[in-house]
Design goal:
It is a single chain. With about 450 residues, the protein is of the alpha/beta class. It folds into 2 domains: about 190 residues, FAD/NAD(P)-binding domain, CATH 3.50.50.60; about 220 residues, D-Amino Acid Oxidase, Chain A, domain 2. The protein has 10 helices and 19 strands. The strands form 3 sheets. It has a 9-stranded mixed beta sheet with strand order 5-6-7-4-14-15-16-13-17, sandwiched between helices. Strands 1, 2, 9, 10, 11, 12, 18 and 19 form an 8-stranded mixed beta sheet that branches. Strand 15 and strand 16 form a beta hairpin. Helix 1 packs parallel to helix 5, helix 1 crosses helix 9 and helix 2 packs across helix 9. It is globular and about 65 Å long. It starts with 7 loop residues before the first strand and ends in a 5-residue tail after the last helix.
C-alpha cells in the first residue's frame, strides 16, 4: 500500500522535541513551507525536552559553539520580545567556580571561545573594580561579556554563600534561565495557526526514492505518508531513523539525572546565577558509607575522585524557594529503548558533592525534603559533543540532533540552521563544521579531542 495523494507533504520533521519543533517553526515562518508534518509517537516536548534545566549561555571553549549559542540567544530574545515575555527569559548569568588561583587554562579558554570578540572578557583583580553583582533581571537590561573574579575578598562579598576557599569565579553575563516549555508552546501555536499538522504517530520504516514513503503507526492503526524531504530530529532515537535511511550515526545516549526541591533552609540565595563547580573532588562520605560503597564494584567509583561539573541554581520565580541540582557524572552509554537506568544514589551523591561549594546544603544530607522531584533524560551526543545539523547521505534527508545537554538553549539556532539546509538557503560560515562535514577535517577533530568534550 502506498501513501494517498492527499497525504503528501513537502517536509516531514520526525521528532517533536525542542529541536524538531524549532526546525519546523523556521521552515514555516522564515521559508514559507506550509505543507509540513511534525511527527512524534509522544506528546510534543514530553521526553528529553521535558527534563531540560532551562538554562542558556553564550560562551563555549570553541568560537564555533560560542557563535552558534550566541546566535541562538538572539533568536530567543526575539521570540521573547514578540511573544510579550512568554519565555520568562532572565539573565543572571552562569558562574563557573574554582578553588584554583588564576587558572590560566580557563582564562585562555575564554579568550579562545570569544575569538575576535575577546574584549568581552574583563579581569577583576580588586574589590575596587566596577564589577556589577549578579541579580535576576530581564535580559534587555543585563550586562554582556564575562567577568573573571580573581580577588577572594570580592568573591566573598559578592557570593557570601560560597565556600570560603573559592579563588576564581568566571561570571558569564549573557546567560540565565528560560521557560523551554513556553518556547515550544509559542512555536507550536504559531505553526498550528498556519495549518501545520502535528501528528501523533511512530515512524516504522522509511523507503527512499524520488520522495520518501513513511510507514507510520498510531492508535488508529497503520498510516502512510509521502514526503519530499525528511528531517531526523528524533532526539535519543536519531540512530533509529538514521538506520531506516541506511546510516549508522556516530552518536550515543548517556542518561543524566537532576533533582529539584523546596529550599526551606534558604541555603541558596535567590539571586545566585546558574553555578557550576569545575573542580574534581572526592565526595565527603562517612567512614561507614565509604566502606560500604567501596565494597561494591558497581558503586566503587563513588569513593574515587570524581570530575567536576556539579551545578546548582534557584528554580522558579525570584520570590519562590525551589532549587535544582545536577551532576552529569555518568559516562556509560545506555540504550534509550530500555528502562531508564535511574541511579538510586543520585540524590545523596549530588547533595554531598554540591555541599562542598554551597555549605548550606549540608542540612539536607540524609534528609532530602519530602516532595523532591527526581528526574532524568538522555544526553544524545557525538564524541566531541558538537551537534549534527545538515545533510544526511540520502538526498533529501537532513538531521538536527546530538545537542547533548544544551538542546533548549541551542534549539532556535539549530532549527534555523537546519531549515536553511533543507531549503538550500544561505547559512552562517560555521554551518559545515556543525554537520558531518567536519569529520573530513582532521585538524579540527584533533583540536576538539585536545579540548575534551567542552560541555561544561
Amino acid at each position: 500500500m502506498s501513501p494517498a495523494e492527499n497525504d503528501h507533504v513537502e517536509v516531514a520533521v520526525i521528532g517533536a522535541g525542542s529541536v524538531g519543533i524549532a526546525v519546523a517553526y523556521y521552515l514555516v515562518t522564515q521559508y514559507g513551507i506550509r505543507h509540513l508534518a511534525l511527527i512524534d509517537a509522544r506528546d510534543p516536548m514530553s521526553l528529553t525536552s521535558a527534563q531540560s534545566g532551562e538554562n542558556y549561555r553564550n560562551w563555549w571553549p570553541h568560537p564555533v559553539m560560542t557563535a552558534f549559542t550566541d546566535h541562538s540567544t538572539s533568536l530567543m530574545e526575539e521570540i521573547d520580545r514578540r511573544s510579550g515575555g512568554r519565555l520568562n527569559m532572565t539573565r543572571s548569568g552562569y558562574a563557573l567556580v574554582s578553588r584554583r588561583n588564576r587558572p590560566q587554562d580557563l582564562i585562555d579558554g575564554l579568550y579562545r571561545g570569544y575569538g575576535d570578540q575577546s574584549t568581552r572578557v574583563r579581569i577583576r583583580e580588586s574589590t575596587e573594580s566596577d564589577y556589577e553583582p549578579p541579580r535576576r533581571r530581564p535580559w534587555s537590561v543585563a550586562p554582556d561579556g564575562v567577568d573573571v573574579l580573581l580577588d577572594q575578598a570580592l568573591i566573598r562579598r559578592t557570593f557570601p554563600a560560597f565556600a570560603h576557599d573559592v579563588a576564581t569565579v568566571i561570571h558569564i553575563r549573557r546567560a540565565g534561565s528560560i521557560s523551554a516549555q513556553q518556547l515550544g508552546a509559542f512555536m507550536l501555536e504559531t505553526m498550528r495557526a498556519l495549518g501545520v499538522r502535528v501528528q501523533r504517530a511512530k515512524v516504522r520504516s522509511i523507503t527512499t526514492g524520488p520522495a520518501f514513503d513513511l510507514e507510520l503507526t498510531s492508535e488508529s492503526g497503520l498510516q502512510w505518508m509521502k514526503a519530499d524531504c525528511v528531517v531526523n530530529a528524533a532526539g535519543p532515537f536519531i540512530r533509529d531513523i538514521g538506520a531506516m535511511l541506511g546510516e549508522d550515526l556516530p552518536v550515543r545516549c548517556v542518561y543524566q539525572q537532576k533533582i529539584a526541591f523546596e529550599d526551606r533552609h534558604c541555603a541558596i540565595p535567590r539571586d545566585l546565577p546558574f553555578t557550576i563547580d569545575l573542580d574534581a573532588h572526592r565526595i565527603p562520605w562517612t567512614d561507614d558509607d565509604r566502606d560500604l560503597l567501596a565494597a561494591d564494584p558497581k558503586t566503587r567509583y563513588l569513593v574515587e575522585p570524581m570530575a567536576g561539573g556539579i551545578h546548582c541554581r534557584p528554580d522558579g520565580p525570584v520570590d519562590g524557594d525551589w532549587i535544582k541540582l545536577g551532576w552529569a557524572y555518568n559516562e556509560r552509554a545506555t540504550d534509550p529503548h530500555e528502562e531508564e537506568p535511574i541511579d538510586p544514589n543520585f540524590s545523596d551523591v549530588v547533595l554531598r558533592g554540591a555541599s562542598r561549594l554551597h555549605p548550606g546544603l549540608t542540612s539536607y544530607i540524609g534528609r532530602v525534603p519530602r516532595g523532591t522531584h527526581r528526574y532524568g533524560g538522555y544526553y544524545t551526543m557525538t564524541g566531541e559533543n558538537w551537534p549534527l545539523i545538515g545533510r544526511m547521505r540520502s538526498p533529501g534527508a537532513f538531521i538536527a540532533g546530538a545537542l547533548s545537554g544544551y538542546g533548549s538553549m541551542a534549539a532556535c539556532a539549530a532549527g534555523q540552521l537546519c531549515a536553511a539546509w533543507v531549503t538550500d538557503s544561505p547559512k552562517p560560515a560555521y554551518a559545515g563544521l556543525l554537520s558531518s562535514e567536519r569529520y573530513s577535517d582532521d585538524a579540527l577533530i584533533a583540536e576538539l579531542v585536545a579540548l575534551g568534550n567542552g560541555s561544561l
